[in-house]
Structure formats: C-alpha cells, structure tokens
Design a protein that fits this description.
GO terms for molecular function: GTP binding; ribosomal small subunit binding; rRNA binding. This is GTPase Era, mitochondrial. Keywords: GTP-binding, Nucleotide-binding. By secondary structure, the chain is an alpha/beta fold. It has twelve helices and eleven strands. The protein has helices spanning about 5-10, 15-30, 50-60, 100-105, 110-120, 140-150, 170-180, 200-205, 230-240, 255-270, 305-315, 320-335, and strands at about 35-45, 75-80, 85-90, 125-130, 155-160, 215-220, 240, 280-290, 295-305, 340-345, 355-360. The strands form two sheets. Strands 1, 2, 3, 4, 5, 6 and 7 form a seven-stranded mixed β-sheet that branches. A four-stranded mixed β-sheet has the order 8-9-10-11. Helix 6 packs across helix 8 and helix 10 (about 255-270) runs antiparallel to helix 12. The chain is globular and about 60 Å long.
Length: about 350
C-alpha cells in the first residue's frame, strides 16, 4: 500500500490543486495586511552548497545533498515560516552548459532551472564556494550571465564553506574581487538597465569575473550553520505585505516519492566512482506512510548490466549497505520520523533481482 493519501495530510507535500485549496482556506483566516512574504532564488555553480543552505533554513533535509555535482535535478521550493512571515526558497540545479548537460545526461531543468527561478523570485541569492581554490576568486560565467540579464532584481552574495579558510583576510580579499570593490548601494538606482543581446552577454562574461550590484555579502558555513542567523534575519526584514502561498505546516512542494528517490540517488553519487551514478535509475517501488512515526519504503536501483550490479553491491555487499544506511538516515532527517528502507538492485533489461538489503 502506498499510503500517499494520508501522506498528503500528514507530511510536507501537497499537490498544486490541494495546495491552492489549503492556501485559500488559510488565507481566508489571515489577510495580506497581517502576513508578509518573500521569494528567494538560490543559484550557483554545481556543488556550491545551495541545498545545504536551504536545509539549514527549514531545519529539515528536504533537498538531497552529496559531495558530487548535479545532486539537485529540478527546481523545487522549500518554505520557511517565521511568525507572520513566509519565505519561499527556490532551489535550483547547479548551472551547467549544454556540453555538461549531455555528458551527465541531465534534463532541460539544468539549463533553464536557474532562469525560471529568478523570474519567480524577489531576490537572487548567489551561493559561491570559497573552498575551491581554482574558482573561488571569480564568479561562475553562467551566474554572471543571469545577473546581467536580471539587473533589476536585488542580488546577494553568499560566500559558503568559510570553515575551509583559515584567514579572515582571505574572505575580505575574495569579497573585493567578487564585487569589484563596489556594491549596489554605491550604484545609482536610477541608472537605466540596458537590455543585452546574447552576443553582448557572452562578450561581457569572457572578461568579467565580478558583479558590482550585490546589495549585501554574507559569509557562512552551511554545513556547520555558521553565519546563517544573519542571513536569515536579513531575508526576514526583506519580506513585504502579501498573502502566504503555502499553509503554515508545509515545508516543501516536493512529492514524498521524489524526496525518497533523491535521497537514495544522492548517496549513490556519494559512494560510486566517476559518472556511474548518473547512469543508474532509481525508482520507488513501495511506500507505506500509514503507520504512526514509521515510514516503510522499497526502492529499486536499476543498472544497465551485471557489472554495475556487482560494483554497486561492493565486496560482500558492503558498499550497498553503507548507501542504504545513509539514505535511510537522510529520509529520516527529511520526514523527522523513523524509516525502514529496503534497496533492491536490478538489471534494467530483465529487471532480474540480484539481491536486496533491508535496514531496520
């Protein structure tokens, strides 16, 4: 039994239709004069820590994370409710080029997701990884392109993984380089925003590595929670009068099925070499959420051939057991309840079950 009907009542997901109904019911009891709202698009290069930052805000692991790139596959929303204020975070896939999309067999959302989120958002949060010595001194060209297109949107620079740097002077120097030693407060708000052609955009990002229109800089370690308080308070102050889009007990617009599948996929990314995880299909086979304080799930890990099956299993099944344990914990962190997860490894063509592993 899937148990999805009760899931919609108990947990953090509602379908678009139910979401509108629940929002309408809630809004009737809460006028726009007494509630504030804000939408924030979180963008950045792959593995910058976008999902980790949002998870810190909502205090749940609603978005899958791993050390490898392209964990987030689609644009999704997480909701932070604080008093009468609601902040909606739009988590996006790491910005990629067409070549990267084809290499990793990524969907269209990896190319358009960032722009779609910005169109919906009030503020752009650019997450920049300072732990990467090769790229930390310049903004990603794909980020710069979007910032130049949407110059009228307020943008924030968030330096993430500051725990990897030993010196505060390094952060100050990085801030200067990434902003060109200018901030939006130093740029005339009356300056007309020129619409740029794609050719002009490409010429700009070939030579430019900074953005002079950031309104604020935040230095955080999302993993440790350091610096997140100031970031959160700034966003709360930026909320404006408006009706809430989501009811107060909703934390994300993601389907529970997707949350579970992405949790498993993220752990495959974490533990498998090279590009293998990008060629493995993860599919939820069974879900029971009807029991109080317990979720039971069976997830298929579908491989192209028996060689991949053996690689994923590892020596004496050691690797898949670690993956299952960590995925189970990630799902528990998202739903804030106990989880019983079973992974079943199959070959895609024959769907022949090689072996399964039950955590419990």
């Amino acid at each position: 039994m899937w148990g999805l009907s009760k899931t919609l009542e108990r947990f953090i997901y509602v379908s678009p239709i139910n979401r509108k109904h629940l929002s309408d019911v809630y809004i009737r009891n809460c006028s726009s004069e007494s509630t504030n709202i804000l939408k924030v698009a979180i963008i950045g290069a792959p593995n910058a820590g976008k999902s980790t930052i949002i998870n810190q805000f909502v205090k749940r692991r609603v978005f899958a994370i791993s050390k490898k790139v392209h964990t987030t596959k689609v644009c999704a929303r997480a909701i932070l409710n604080h008093g009468n204020k609601q902040i909606i975070f739009l988590d996006t896939p790491g910005l990629v080029s067409l070549n990267e999309s084809e290499r990793y067999k990524l969907g269209k959302s990896f190319i358009s997701g960032g722009e779609d989120a910005i169109l919906e958002a009030d503020i752009i949060g650019v997450i920049h990884d300072v732990s990467n010595s090769g790229s930390r001194s310049s903004l990603d060209p794909k980020v710069l392109r979007l910032l130049n297109i949407y110059q009228d949107k307020e943008s924030l620079l968030v330096l993430n993984k500051i725990d990897t740097l030993k010196s505060k002077n390094q952060l100050l120097e990085l801030s200067k380089k990434l902003t060109g030693e200018k901030m939006r407060s130093n740029v005339s708000e009356d300056t007309p925003k020129k619409s740029l052609s794609e050719l002009e955009l490409q010429q700009i990002i070939k030579t430019k590595r900074h953005w002079e229109n950031f309104s604020e800089i935040f230095m955080v370690s999302a993993l440790l929670g350091k610096g997140m308080h100031d970031f959160k308070n700034y966003l709360l102050k930026k909320t404006y009068p408006g009706k809430w889009i989501f009811p107060p007990d909703i934390y994300t617009d993601q389907n529970p099925v997707k949350i579970i599948e992405e949790a498993v996929h993220s752990k495959l990314l974490e533990h498998l070499p090279e590009e293998i995880p990008y060629n493995v299909n993860v599919e939820l086979e069974y879900l029971d959420m009807d029991k109080e304080e317990l979720i039971s799930a069976v997830v298929l890990v579908q491989c192209n051939n028996s060689r991949l099956v053996g690689l994923i299993k590892g020596i004496k099944g050691g690797r898949i057991r670690i993956i299952a344990d960590e995925a189970e914990q990630a799902i528990a962190d998202a739903f804030l309840t106990d989880v019983h997860l079973k992974l079943v490894i199959t070959e895609k063509k024959s769907l022949k079950v090689e072996k399964d592993y039950i955590n419990g």
